[in-house]
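Hey team,

Filing this mostly as a record. A colleague (T.K.) asked me to run one chain through the structure pipeline before their review meeting, and I want the input and output archived in the tracker in case anyone asks later how it was produced. No errors, nothing strange. Just documentation.

Input sequence:
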Amino acid sequence: MLEVIEKLLILQERDRRILQLQRELESVDPQRRAVLTKAERVEAALENARQKARHLEGERKKLELEVSARQERIERYSLQQFQTKKNEEYRALTREIDTCKAEIVKLEDQELDIMEQAEVAHRAISDLAANAATVKEESARQLADLAVREDTLKQHLAEAIEGRSTLAEAAGEAGLAIYERLRKNKGERVVVGVEHGACGGCHMKLPAQVVIECRGNQNIVTCPNCGRILYYTREMDMAVAE
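Output structure:
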């Protein structure tokens, strides 16, 4: 194998490592947002449950006030009955008292129903609060792990980028120029092996002359179809024989 090909393969591996680190680093923020979003949803569910409980308590207190108001009316009507001497007025007050008593029964039924709902709401709050505490603890741990991972990735990326220039210089100007041009269009794999007589990049069958040139290891040979830089090794000979 040509020395320049060996250098370009090393450079290509470094570039692939840099891309991998960049992708992993870019994935940290979405993961962090996902952790925060989950925690926020759990907290929102807990707050909604608390608001519901507060609403039910407010409704219960309103019913209590309405019951108290009707009880006061009953006391007032009863006093008026004691004071009146007219049968017609007495009977009218009795009807008012009966109406208030019937309304009190309905209000107390409503209050009982709300109390049952409130009991269910408080149980839900207890469960949600326990879950929120667990999620909060997990989120804190996950965020801490992500922060450490982010710092480590940044360090490794900086080291990989710093060392790339030395590898690029070692490849030589001619080979590097071809490599850099191809990398802009072909992505990560621009230096590829000959696999079963075909280009390892585009997988198109290569002319026999191209394969022979690769085996000669005299010059940089490129795929006539995709332009990628080709190389050939004895192991590939064995693969073809199989």
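Quick notes for T.K.: DSSP finds six helices and four strands in the chain. The longest helix spans residues 87-171.
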